[in-house]
Amino acid sequence: MKARVTVTLKAGVLDPQGQAIEGSLKGLGFSGVASVRQGKVFDLVLDGASEEEARIAITQMCEKLLANTVIENYAVEISN
Amino acid sequence: MKARVTVTLKAGVLDPQGQAIEGSLKGLGFSGVASVRQGKVFDLVLDGASEEEARIAITQMCEKLLANTVIENYAVEISN
């Protein structure tokens, strides 16, 4: 069972890394860039679990380790 | 125009950060985790471009700044 967890900053949370990338892109001549926000992605492989069990386990992983839920949102996509 | 760029390590490239997360998840009792690979996601907002122009610009951004194409793959999703 494969899963992808995408962790992004909540709206309103300052993202200095994203701002630095935005500045660099403008410096390279990409003038149409209005905003950049950076997040993280985790590609997980889980052994022998049903999709429902996997979703429950991954939600716990996000709450405990993968995301800081005070400032970050997470989304879980499960494939086969 | 919004776009999401997902940058992931190519297969075979060592991912010590992913291995550390895998170890931590196992330490927390998630024994079913077989593999973790970490990547990056960039949420971009672009001013006034058609979807085709945006795709061309974002591909150039990936090649020049957002991804290290020696060791990383990138995927671009464009929405409205």
From TrEMBL, chains A, B:
<comment type="function">
    <text>Part of the phosphoribosylformylglycinamidine synthase complex involved in the purines biosynthetic pathway. Catalyzes the ATP-dependent conversion of formylglycinamide ribonucleotide (FGAR) and glutamine to yield formylglycinamidine ribonucleotide (FGAM) and glutamate. The FGAM synthase complex is composed of three subunits. PurQ produces an ammonia molecule by converting glutamine to glutamate. PurL transfers the ammonia molecule to FGAR to form FGAM in an ATP-dependent manner.</text>
</comment>
<dbReference type="InterPro" id="IPR036604">
    <property type="entry name" value="PurS-like_sf"/>
</dbReference>
<dbReference type="Pfam" id="PF02700">
    <property type="entry name" value="PurS"/>
</dbReference>
<dbReference type="InterPro" id="IPR003850">
    <property type="entry name" value="PurS"/>
</dbReference>
<keyword id="KW-0547">Nucleotide-binding</keyword>
<comment type="pathway">
    <text>Purine metabolism; IMP biosynthesis via de novo pathway; 5-amino-1-(5-phospho-D-ribosyl)imidazole from N(2)-formyl-N(1)-(5-phospho-D-ribosyl)glycinamide: step 1/2.</text>
</comment>
<keyword id="KW-0067">ATP-binding</keyword>
<protein>
    <recommendedName>
        <fullName>Phosphoribosylformylglycinamidine synthase subunit PurS</fullName>
        <ecNumber>6.3.5.3</ecNumber>
    </recommendedName>
</protein>
<keyword id="KW-0658">Purine biosynthesis</keyword>
<comment type="subunit">
    <text>Part of the FGAM synthase complex composed of 1 PurL, 1 PurQ and 2 PurS subunits.</text>
</comment>
<comment type="similarity">
    <text>Belongs to the PurS family.</text>
</comment>
<keyword id="KW-0436">Ligase</keyword>
<keyword id="KW-0963">Cytoplasm</keyword>
